[in-house]
Amino acid sequence: MKKIILGRTNLMVTKTAFGALPIQRVTLEDAKVILRKAYDNGINFFDTARGYTDSEEKLGYALSDVRKDIIIATKSPAKDKKTLFENLEISLMKLKTDYVDILQLHNPKDLPNPDEKDGLYDGLLEAKRKGMVRFIGISNHRLSTAMTAAESELYDTIQFPLSSLSSKEDLKLIEKCKKRNIGVIAMKALSGGLITNAASTFAFLRQFDNVVPIWGIQRESELDEFIALEKNPPVLDEAMLSIIQKDRTELLGAFCRGCGYCLPCPASIEIPIAARISLLLDRAPYQKFIEDGWKEKMENIENCIECGHCKSHCPYELNTPELLKSELKKYRKFCAAHKA
Predict the structure, then answer these.
(1) The pLDDT of residue 81
(2) Could you tell me if 80 and 166 lie in one domain?
(3) Are 238 and 277 found together in one domain?
(4) Is the pTM of this model over 0.85?
């Protein structure tokens, strides 16, 4: 496994890293099998979060006996110092460790005031002084916030959505971080599964020597694909660039990445899938999405109560209720065309 130094942390992390959000959807034992296989094949960097239900617990269960050989990044959604330490104590217990390598603030709308006594940032520094945390990071879906965080030089790492679809403006973050020796962690590298050719975005992100993609892995077959790509890295040649350009054309504009921050939905609408169903119908095997079960789920959009929860929690600031209505119309049209 190729390793790089993650900015000023000087942590040697594998260029292929494990995003542990999806393992919350599998059983404890299945998660252990996947995580151990990742470790046995050389992956040493695992990213999770307090908000990923039992993801931290599964990491602790599977990898606590090799803790000294791995690097763990987790996140806290805390908005104050007291909650930060409460979150951190739970994370350490679940992960079965007495420290985390990187503690990241989880997608804050506003950056904390570093000069506030006993404020959130002061809490990060205190956790570091106490040895509970080695390095301080931040994750964010807003480019302006990520850029400001980089310019402040207060964070050792910045996690941001980066893929072969990233705009020129998004990619400027990479250079800004490189100049300041800040490690870049790339999330959503497959844009929530809408990039169906993993090799293309793998090759695209490989060209940046200060970027570490965390691949969201739920199935052993997905892990196998990234292990194979690591053993034989694809080249960013004209053929690969052509694939990337096709993706950019088809996925132009704002779209749901399936991050799930909109959940839970009080009307039980499966927003992360429903809000991008037309893209999935075009870019993935569509048959399962037009079966009766999914028809019922899509028609549930009609039960939206307009509470505004999804819209206010979308990190990409999408008008989710309107997007859902639009996707339902497209879905009905697709089903009619396929006589489903």
Answers:
(1) 98
(2) yes
(3) no
(4) yes
